[in-house]
Amino acid sequence: MVLKGEATVIKNAGSHFLLSELPVWAPFPALLKGKVRLGGSTATNPVAVGDRVRYEAEVPDGAGTEAVDMLHPAAIAEVLDRRNYIIRKSTNLSRQNHVIAANIDRAYLVVSLYFPQIKLPFLDRLLVTCEVYGIPATVVMNKVDLYREEAAEYVQDFHRIYEGAGYPVLETSVLTGEGIDALREDCKDKVCLFSGESGVGKSSLIHALDPSLDPKVGRISDVHLQGRHTTSLYEMYRLTSGGYIIDTPGLRGFGLVRLEKEEIALYFPEMLQAAQECRFTPCTHTHEPGCAVKAAVEAGTISPERYSSYLGMLEEDTKFR
After folding, report:
1. Is residue 50 within 8 Å of residue 9, measured between CB atoms?
2. What's the domain count of the chain?
3. Are 302 and 296 in contact (CB under 8 A)?
4. 60: number of Cβ within 10 Å
5. Which residues of 171-195 are buried (b: 16+ CB within 10 A; e: fewer)?
6. CATH of residue 54
7. Mapping DSSP to helix (H, G, I), strand (E, B) and coil, where does residue 43 land?
8. Beta carbons of 293 and 274 less than 8 angstroms apart
9. What pTM was estimated for this model as a whole?
10. Tens digit of pLDDT for each residue in 48-58?
């Protein structure tokens, strides 16, 4: 008989997928039907982890998804409308886009101030993208045991920059356990995306949240102090404490998609608020007299670091690193 149903994509490995009918956690394999794969999407992956899909599977009479296996996978027939998603340009100079994940309750953007050294413009691109697609974001400052005492002022500055922009900042350390319980509680009953640059400790953090999970853990390249890519698949994990985590490969570039230059300032919350007092509308916040955003930067109520990221986004062309 033909079994039909709806499920969530929990793993994406190229053209192969794992589905589960959440909140039930019972993964089964699936492939894309040709019409879905060639459905006119401009993204390199028309189906992403977190997508809700309709599927069909040939199973014995009376059987359920437990009868679906690698020899007889289900077929993904339709991708249902997304509540939200996060997307980036696929590669430098590429016209194609890549959907990282869909239907996300909160994004946790994991950073490390050192080892690897944080790149604030990269983080700001992620935050802008979360704003564009309506995904609440928390910044997770990981590995705080490595630099709190030696770089206390930098840690304070980081809080000032991002909490001042309206984002929660959570400090965590896998080594000491700091912040792990709070993060675990925050993830409860949510679908959470964990993203960030290579080497920031996402996989170790996920393992600390739930020791039954074992994403691959890599080491830092001594030459460039950058993380090696250890997660090559997009995958969702179920936390035994409740909730789901979508783990992504470590990113080394993040290009903005479908965002006009005059729109960028709208997705910096602190700039959007200040811009209401600008003398001219529209205002690019670069050269106009009476610009309230530039005045706020000079007064220190908008961080120069975030303003610099904004200017960089205005100036970029097809290159995005």
Report:
1. yes
2. 3
3. yes
4. 8
5. bbbbeeebbbeebbebbeebbbbbb
6. 2.40.50.140
7. strand
8. yes
9. 0.87
10. 999 999 999 98
